[in-house]
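Appendix B, example 12.
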Amino acid sequence: MPPPRETDCEFGVPFPGRVLDGSRWTRTGLRDPGAPFDWTRVFGRDAPRVVDLGCGNGRYLIGSALARPATDHLGIDLVQVAVDFAAQRANRRGLTNVRFVVADAVTWMYDRLAPASVDEVHVYHPQPYYEPDDRARRLLTPEFIERTWTVLRPGGMLVLQTDNRSYWKYLMAAVPKHFLPELLPGPWPDAPAGRTRREISARLKGLVVWRMQARRRDAPLAIAVPAPDFDADRPSFRARRRR
């Protein structure tokens, strides 16, 4: 895999940061420990903690790590090549406050991240899974949202973004039980062209992108939350669901 170039762009938008002299490069790739994640041991300090589930090539986390050196960042993604690109870019920018791991988000949320151990959880463009048989693979179930509430510290933040209207409608119904959503109508102030590769691409295609920041409630509301059994706006989904 070729290393990132000094003029690293995606769809004409520069990647955050710049490549440093090789003497200042770091190592940000992480192996799954197979046990609860020890933030203090890995980062050598006790600092605010940000987790990006499905971090892709690391655009958001690297930008955030550069802007917030006093905060530690962890990116999780199942796609090896995406994590390789993310780690290479972070390494060449000399970052010490970010790590990337190839892993399953569900496993990490339930088995690696302890309750009340994280300050922010970010999920950008979760896969909607268009076919009816794949509905069970959708990440943001009521149980997963509840686990996110458990993993976050009091006052913690859940950040969500999607360009799928049906997923957004579902999140609007599912998130308020555990969080206080704040809808963000415009681009991110820290990344006006887009926080992620997917967001930049979606906006270039003229797609609407929905965003929310949701603050953790002190206690969940006593309301029922539906399962993510929604039509993801594909004709094949609707046709098979009617059978």
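The beta strands are 9-10, 13-14, 29-30, 49-53, 72-77, 98-102, 118-124, 152-162, 179-183, 210-216. Residues 4 and 89 are 6 Å apart (CA to CA).
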